[in-house]
User: Fold Acetyltransferase from Chryseobacterium camelliae.
Amino acid sequence: MQTKFLSMKCKSILAVLFLSGATLGYAQRIDSEQVSFQLLKEPLNPVDSQSRNFSVVVNSPYNMTKEDVIKEAKEKFQKQVDNYDQSVQDAKLQHEERLKDYEAEVKKLTEKYKTESEQYNKMKAVEKIAMNAMPPVLRLPSRPQLNVPQKPVYRDPDLRSALIVDNKVLASQVNIDGFSRGGNAIDISINMERTNFQDNAGKSFASQPTKLVVKQNGAVKIDKILFSDFEEIASSPTNEINLSDHERMYLQKVMNKINEILADNFGYSKINSTVKLETVKNKGEYDDLEKASIYVTTNLKKLQARPDYTPNKAALENMDKGITLWKDALKKINYEDKKAAYNAKIAAYLYMNLIRLNLALGKKPEAEKYLNEMQEHLVDMKLSFDQNYELKGLEQKIYN
Assistant:
């Protein structure tokens, strides 16, 4: 009887193990890896490597040098010296006027105190108690003091905060990575006004209309007006902020924007990037997906941010092999069967990989295409909180 019981117990354990094994056969283990790579950002208007040079002309109302700032500081100091005696005299006259006002106020308060004291002293004790009357107190204002202005002392101006700039300095701030200065393949013309300030609802606003015209081998490639609209620069009115500091910062903002436009249109820049890629680790059923992961991650790491770099072409072609395997796998997805080898969980990781990778490579239209496909099946995928959070972040990158 005991032997029969043990036999039945062993069979039950084996059955449980068999069912567990069958269930595990459909459970996919998905791992992730942060892949670092280099990317060469190519311009909208490529320029032949032999012709990457530029010239720039700036026309602006700015014409302030270091010497001009020092000269202005000394002139201001000399004006203070010349006006010092008069400022002392003015201070004395103002003091005399305040004394007259003070003496008149003291006389008025003293007379009031005298009148109130006489009225109080005429009251009987019973009346004072009944009326809760208190004896009057004479409170006089402080006597005004003579504030003689201090003699002016010259201090060197803070050149770090001074707006030391002229057309040559502004032209020197224009730059295109990978280009040399002095040629005329790219001809840049900048015409700017001085920063305009304006108050609105207790806040400070600024604008600085700037016309940017760029020609490539004589053909106009850029012709636009920048910063013509007022934008908020401070939550306080203009009379409470340092206008010189804000003008310097706003002018730098204009120059930064110009360089950004030039970089987008003509410059080659190196981008060091990292992208999260996932892969399913189960053997056998997912060998193609493992192969796809190797194709993509290995060749992504091989990319070099160098123009006309021949190995990049081979790396991209091999990456495409892995991407094709991902896309082929999506055709096998069975969204209705959770136990299917290629189920909604596999689809989620494949779509996320395709969206992440295309975004990292600067291919927003491709990323958006896979996002749209994925959104059609989101109900079936039942993403985790972390996956939903990441997907929202990817959407913002695509649409912004």
